[in-house]
C-alpha cells in the first residue's frame, strides 16, 4: 500500500511566493519522492530558497509541508492569501487536521502566514 498524506503544496512562481493548494500526496517506497497531480517531486536537500522540493520534469520549485492545525501554512501574511483545498480531502482536512467539522464543505482557507507580524487575528 502506498503511503499518502494531506499536505500544503505551494508553487514558488517568483522564487518566494506563488499559488497554493492543500491536497493528498503519495510517497515512493523510499519516501524520497512525492507525487501530486501527475507531478513527481524530489527534495532540494536544503539547497532551495523558501522551497524544499522541485518538480523532476520542469525543475520548478515548491514548498511542500504538513498542514498546520491553525491553517497558517503560508510563510508570510497574505501570500498567497487564499489556499484552495482539493475536493477529495476537504472533509478529512477540516475534521482531522483542523478539528472544525462544521467547516467541512469549505473549499478554501485564508492563511495569515507563519510569520505574521503582531498579534493573531481571529479567523
Protein model, in words:
The chain is mainly beta and 123 residues long. The chain contains one helix and eight strands. A hairpin with an 8-residue loop joins strand 1 and strand 2. The C terminus is likely disordered.
Mean pLDDT: 85
What is the count of β-strands?
Answer: 8
Number of helices: 1
Please trace the helix and strand order, writing H or E for each element. EEEEEEEHE
Distance between the termini: 37 Å
Sheet/helix structural class = mainly beta
Strand order of the largest sheet: 1-2-3-4-5-6
What is the alpha-carbon Rg in Å? 14 Å
Features:
123 residues; mainly beta; globular
Lay out the secondary structure:
Elements lengths: L3 E8 L8 E8 L5 E4 L2 E5 L9 E3 L5 E6 L15 E4 L4 H8 L10 E3 L13
Parallel strand pairs: 2-7
Antiparallel strand pairs: 1-2, 1-6, 2-3, 3-4, 4-5, 5-6, 7-8
Q: How would you summarize this macromolecular structure in one to three sentences?
A:
The protein is 7% helix and 33% strand. The protein has 1 helix and 8 strands.
Amino acid at each position: 500500500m502506498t503511503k499518502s498524506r494531506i499536505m500544503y503544496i505551494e508553487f514558488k512562481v517568483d522564487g518566494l511566493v506563488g499559488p497554493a493548494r492543500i491536497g493528498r500526496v503519495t510517497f515512493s517506497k523510499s519516501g524520497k519522492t512525492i507525487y501530486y497531480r501527475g507531478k513527481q517531486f524530489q527534495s532540494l536537500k536544503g539547497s532551495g530558497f523558501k522551497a524544499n522540493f522541485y518538480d523532476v520534469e520542469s525543475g520548478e520549485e515548491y514548498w511542500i509541508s504538513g498542514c498546520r492545525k491553525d491553517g497558517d501554512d503560508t510563510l508570510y501574511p497574505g501570500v498567497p492569501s487564499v489556499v484552495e483545498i482539493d475536493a477529495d480531502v476537504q472533509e478529512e482536512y477540516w475534521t482531522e487536521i483542523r478539528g472544525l467539522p462544521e467547516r467541512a464543505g469549505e473549499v478554501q482557507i485564508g492563511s495569515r502566514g507563519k510569520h505574521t507580524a503582531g498579534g493573531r487575528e481571529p479567523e
